[in-house]
């Protein structure tokens, strides 16, 4: 489905309370700030995660139809730290392999007293379709096709907030395969909602943002120009699994033209932070020394994923 046509309307009830998390379009600055504040409250002064009882007696099912390391595992850890029962549904051996429809599988799991479903799927809009067709449970979008990845954007915003004073004054560059990146789409939405006015998208023509969301955003095809004086540089992987064979760029050429090297990073502000949702491909979109360098907050993003996912689950459970 064209991502411009996917609506998140059903994620709020009539009083504006979050009942699913499908995407960030339609959520207010207050909604986003509340999620980030709850996540912050789950970290102690040393940045260590607290535990909570918010989902005691509740059950959460992880349904990952695409591969994942960070998102799936941090959802699992977040579920356990909020005292939920969490199950990772073994999709390779489930009845979906016997042609059971996804909705039937979900209704079956609901009959096992599952309260929340975390869904990652290659089809844009799939979590929305599930949310429309099943009552009494919460759906959390863990990445749908090229559409959205709301918890990734929220953990990115938490990470930025930990390093920078306010979103209003920031210059943020997003570099790489924007066309196929659900992360970029959710990050752009989150940044706009939180008030960032200088968002720059850096990509070769074939990988630049092609949705109406980007109509008012500055686009660059030259990384040296786009990165100048930025406070935040977000790097994206070439998502080859979503490209036609013929459109896959040559990796060396791509690195030569768009790879984040120490020389290019030096054009950003000296205290700029480097972010990447992972998985990183060293020597393709980012130089290894930059990924490991002192400006990199890539692993902090991973850790923040737990607090943000705990916060979202607590809010959906009505306990924060
Ligand atoms: C991203 C995803 O799956 O959208 N990864 C993630 O969840 N951390 C980005 C990617 O796959 O490149």
TrEMBL record:
Q: Which domain of life is it from?
A: Bacteria
> What is the protein name for this chain?
Aspartate carbamoyltransferase
Task: Report the residue ranges that make up the Aspartate/ornithine carbamoyltransferase Asp/Orn-binding domain in this protein.
Answer: 169-315
Q: How does it assemble?
A: Heterododecamer (2C3:3R2) of six catalytic PyrB chains organized as two trimers (C3), and six regulatory PyrI chains organized as three dimers (R2).
Q: What NCBIfam families has UniProt attached to this entry? A: asp_carb_tr (TIGR00670), PRK00856.1 (NF002032)
- Associated pathway: Pyrimidine metabolism; UMP biosynthesis via de novo pathway; (S)-dihydroorotate from bicarbonate: step 2/3
Q: A GO molecular function for this record?
A: aspartate carbamoyltransferase activity
Any idea of its EC number? 2.1.3.2
What residue stretches are annotated with the Aspartate/ornithine carbamoyltransferase carbamoyl-P binding domain? 20-162
- Tell me, what does this protein do in biology? Catalyzes the condensation of carbamoyl phosphate and aspartate to form carbamoyl aspartate and inorganic phosphate, the committed step in the de novo pyrimidine nucleotide biosynthesis pathway.
Residues annotated to bind carbamoyl phosphate: 70-71, 120, 149, 152, 278-279
Q: What family does the Swiss-Prot or TrEMBL record give for this protein?
A: Belongs to the aspartate/ornithine carbamoyltransferase superfamily. ATCase family.
Encoding gene per record: pyrB
- Any Pfam family: OTCace
The entry's L-aspartate-binding residues are 98, 182, 237
């Amino acid at each position: 489905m064209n991502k411009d046509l996917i609506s998140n309307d059903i994620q709020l009830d009539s009083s504006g309370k979050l009942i699913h998390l499908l995407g960030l379009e339609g959520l207010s600055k207050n909604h986003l700030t509340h999620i980030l504040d709850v996540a912050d409250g789950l970290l102690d002064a040393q940045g260590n995660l607290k535990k909570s009882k918010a989902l005691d007696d509740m059950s959460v099912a992880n349904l990952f139809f695409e591969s994942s390391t960070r998102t799936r595992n941090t959802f699992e850890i977040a579920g356990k730290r909020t005292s939920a029962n969490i199950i990772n549904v073994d999709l390779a051996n489930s009845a979906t392999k016997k042609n059971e429809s996804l909705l039937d599988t979900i209704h079956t799991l609901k009959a096992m007293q599952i309260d929340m479903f975390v869904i990652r799927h290659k089809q844009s809009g799939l979590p929305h379709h599930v949310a429309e067709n099943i009552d009494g449970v919460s759906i959390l979008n863990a990445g749908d096709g090229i559409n959205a990845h709301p918890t990734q954007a929220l953990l990115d915003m938490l990470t930025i907030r930990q390093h920078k004073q306010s979103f209003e004054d920031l210059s943020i560059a997003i570099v790489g395969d924007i066309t196929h990146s659900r992360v970029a789409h959710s990050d752009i939405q989150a940044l706009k909602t939180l008030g960032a006015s200088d968002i720059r998208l850096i990509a070769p023509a074939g990988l630049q943002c092609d949705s109406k969301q980007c109509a008012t955003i500055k686009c660059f095809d030259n990384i040296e120009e786009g990165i100048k004086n930025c406070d935040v540089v977000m790097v994206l992987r070439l998502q080859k699994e979503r490209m036609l064979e013929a459109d896959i760029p040559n990796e060396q050429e791509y690195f030569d033209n768009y790879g984040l090297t120490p020389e290019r990073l030096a054009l950003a502000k000296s205290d700029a932070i480097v972010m990447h949702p992972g998985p990183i491909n060293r020597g393709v979109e980012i130089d290894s020394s930059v990924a490991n360098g002192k400006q990199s907050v890539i692993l902090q993003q991973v850790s923040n994923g737990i607090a943000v996912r705990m916060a979202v689950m607590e809010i959906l459970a009505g306990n924060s």
